[in-house]
Structures are given as C-alpha cells and as structure tokens.
C-alpha cells in the first residue's frame, strides 16, 4: 500500500499541530534511485484502550508516505474510543482487528503472523515514528545487504514529541550484559522477516518480549546496524506498562537469564549469575536511596538488606556509586533550602 498525502487523511483534532498532525514527509518516488521497488515494510501496532494516543501513532506511520507499506493494527477489544479512531483510518490500514487476546505479546504475534514485508517492526499504540524513519531504514537495508536488523536512537518524551526528556541511544550489544542493559529501543528497531521466522518471537512474555527477541537476534546474527538518525519516540505516561513496572517485569528478566544460562559454558553461566544478582542489588539500592519505587512497589530496608546480604558484590559498581552521589547532592540541597 502507498499512503496518501496529509490532505486525504482525517483532519487533525483542534489544537494539534506539528508532526504528525499538520506536517508530513516529502513524497517519495514509487521506485528507488536505481529503479528498483522500495522493500516492503510491515508495521504491527498492538493496542488496548489507548484512545488518548493511538491516533498520533497511526498518523506517524501513515504520514511516512512510504510507497510499500503494510500496516497492521491488532486491538485487544478496547472499550474506549480506540475502535472508532481506527475506523477513521481503516482505508489506509492494510488489516485491523479488535478482539480479546492474551495481552500485548499475543497481539504482536497475531500481527506478525500476517506480515508479508521483507522488513518488520512493531510500534506500540502510545509511541510514534519520526519523519523519514522508514525511508532511512529501507535505504540502510538496501545498502547493507548483510544487515539483518537495524536500530537507531529513540527520543523519550512525556507530552510534546518535539521536546524530548532524553534520548535512548543503542549501545552495549554483548551478551549477557545485553539482557540487563536494554540497549536497543524496540520503537526504533527493525529486522528482516526471515530472521524473525528463524529465531521465533515468544508471545508468552508480559514485559520483556522485545529483550527476549533481540537477544536471539544478537546471538544468531550479531549486533544490529546502527543508524545515527532518531527513528522513533517512546512516550512515558502514568498509564503505560513501562511506567507501572511490576514484579513480573523482574520475573521476565530472570526467565530470559535462565534461558541463556543453559546455553552457555560453566564460566559464562557464572558471569551471567553475577550480572543478574548485581542488577537486582543495584536497582534496589538506587530505588531505596532515591525514594523511587522498584517494580511498582516501595523498597523497604529489610528487602534491601536481604538483597545485599545475598550478594554483597552487587554494591561494587558505578550505578551504586552514582546513586550515593545523587543521594548526597539531594541531602545537601535540602540542607541549603
């Protein structure tokens, strides 16, 4: 499918301006510079009760004006206005459905089962693609024939996508640190469909389906091709799953660690255990000192002491030292005020 120009889409809601409301990309020619067709890109958007954000997500995909786009929206049976919004754009969407499912990963799996594109990604219904993202990704895959997956920076924002709070930059593509460092932003990572079919996409995770999938890509194909341009935006808001981390998030990570530990030599299993235990200690230590919840719950003194006692070396890292420094600065500012 080829997306129409902005004039053919529903009008932007009153007060909404900029990308992706009143600004679109420049038209792309139907063929690439060498006369070959643009590779088909399939985008899957899982959604459930995201009426507040899903229109912005949909428009950020359609206004790429990419000539060979396959756009699939899998809604989990929303009870808000999500379906009404999707219907406004259904003539531009390749396929969409609204029905009960087993959660986000299940919805993604349903969508991926329908894709036909050479290149794939999934974009959650509260995130956005940035202008020119698809043409940048397509050209990278065409220029670098050996590239199996591509990842780029992702802006983290809360309200205005043009004023990000921070930037998520791809880094540290080494196992097992990869599992706990979350180096690749899912919103700005693309892969070949054949690679996904080769390693599989596990739909039984609640939070960490992206880490589980990317770790398999890393092991099978090596690090992704990194691009410099910001490709997407990750929205932080109180209702998002990521903002409401629960213990199951940690359970997902531990499950991934156990999966890989059985595939490694004895020495690497020891290293993986060290990384996992250190991660638990340093995140709890930072959360306790700085007063931020861990997995959606406050960190108590007894919990912290138990974790430290179970693995004292977990305190010996830069993250814990940085938490102490931030805590002392916080105390010093409180004394001065």
Instruction: Tell how many strands the DSSP assignment holds.
Output: 11
What proportion of the residues form beta strands (DSSP E)? 5-15%
> Based on helices, strands and strand pairing, what is the structural class?
alpha/beta
**Fraction of residues in helix:** 25-40%
Largest sheet: 7 strands, mixed
The helix-strand sequence is EHEHEHEEHEEEHEHHEEHHHH
Topology (elements, then pairings):
Blueprint: E1 41-47, H1 54-62, E2 69-75, H2 82-88, E3 95-98, H3 104-112, E4 119-122, E5 128-129, H4 133-143, E6 149-151, E7 154-157, E8 166-168, H5 177-181, E9 189-192, H6 193-199, H7 209-221, E10 225-226, E11 232-235, H8 247-261, H9 266-290, H10 301-310, H11 318-336
Parallel strand pairs: 1-2, 1-4, 2-3, 6-10, 7-11
Antiparallel strand pairs: 4-9, 5-11, 6-9, 7-8
Helix pairs in contact: 8-9, 9-10, 9-11
Task: Give a description of the structure.
The protein is built from 11 helices and 11 strands. 39% of the residues lie in helices and 13% in strands. The protein is globular. The strands form 2 sheets. A 7-stranded mixed sheet has the order 3-2-1-4-9-6-10, with helices on both faces. Strands 5-11-7-8 form a 4-stranded mixed sheet. It has helices at 54-62, 82-88, 104-112, 133-143, 177-181, 193-199, 209-221, 247-261, 266-290, 301-310, 318-336, and strands at 41-47, 69-75, 95-98, 119-122, 128-129, 149-151, 154-157, 166-168, 189-192, 225-226, 232-235. It is α/β, with parallel strands linked by helices and 337 residues long. β1 (41-47), α1 and β2 form a beta-alpha-beta unit. α8 packs antiparallel against α9 (266-290), α9 packs antiparallel against α10 (301-310) and α9 (266-290) runs parallel beside α11. The chain starts with 40 loop residues before the first strand and ends with a helix. The model has no long low-confidence stretch (mean pLDDT 87).
């Amino acid at each position: 499918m080829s997306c129409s120009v902005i004039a053919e889409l529903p009008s932007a809601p009153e007060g909404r301006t900029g990308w992706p409301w009143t600004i679109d990309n420049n038209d792309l020619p139907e063929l690439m510079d060498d006369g070959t067709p643009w590779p088909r890109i399939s985008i899957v958007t899982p959604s459930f009760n995201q009426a507040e954000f899903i229109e912005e997500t949909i428009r950020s995909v359609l206004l790429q004006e990419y000539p060979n786009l396959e756009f699939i929206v899998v809604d989990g049976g929303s009870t808000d206005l999500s379906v009404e919004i999707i219907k406004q754009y259904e003539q531009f969407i390749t396929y969409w459905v609204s029905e009960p499912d087993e959660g986000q990963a299940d919805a993604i799996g349903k969508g991926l089962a329908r894709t036909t594109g050479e290149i794939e990604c999934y974009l959650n219904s509260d995130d956005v693609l940035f202008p020119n993202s698809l043409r940048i990704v397509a050209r990278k895959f065409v220029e670098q024939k050996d590239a199996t997956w591509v990842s780029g920076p992702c802006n983290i924002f809360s309200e205005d996508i043009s004023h990000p709070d921070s930037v998520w930059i791809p880094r540290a593509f080494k196992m097992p640190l990869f599992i706990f460092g979350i180096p690749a932003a899912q919103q700005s990572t693309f892969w070949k469909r054949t690679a996904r079919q080769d390693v599989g996409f596990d739909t039984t995770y609640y939070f960490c389906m992206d880490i589980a999938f990317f770790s398999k890509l890393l092991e099978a194909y090596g690090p992704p091709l990194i691009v410099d341009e910001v490709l997407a935006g990750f929205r932080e808001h109180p209702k998002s799953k990521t903002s409401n981390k629960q213990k199951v998030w940690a359970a997902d990570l531990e499950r991934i660690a156990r999966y890989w530990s059985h595939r490694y030599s004895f020495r690497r299993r020891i290293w993986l255990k060290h990384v996992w235990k250190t991660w638990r200690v340093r995140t709890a230590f930072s959360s306790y000192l700085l007063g931020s919840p861990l997995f959606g719950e406050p960190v108590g003194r007894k919990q912290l002491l138990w974790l430290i006692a179970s693995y004292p070396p977990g305190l010996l890292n830069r993250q814990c030292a940085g938490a102490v420094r931030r805590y002392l600065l916080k105390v010093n500012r409180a004394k001065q005020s």
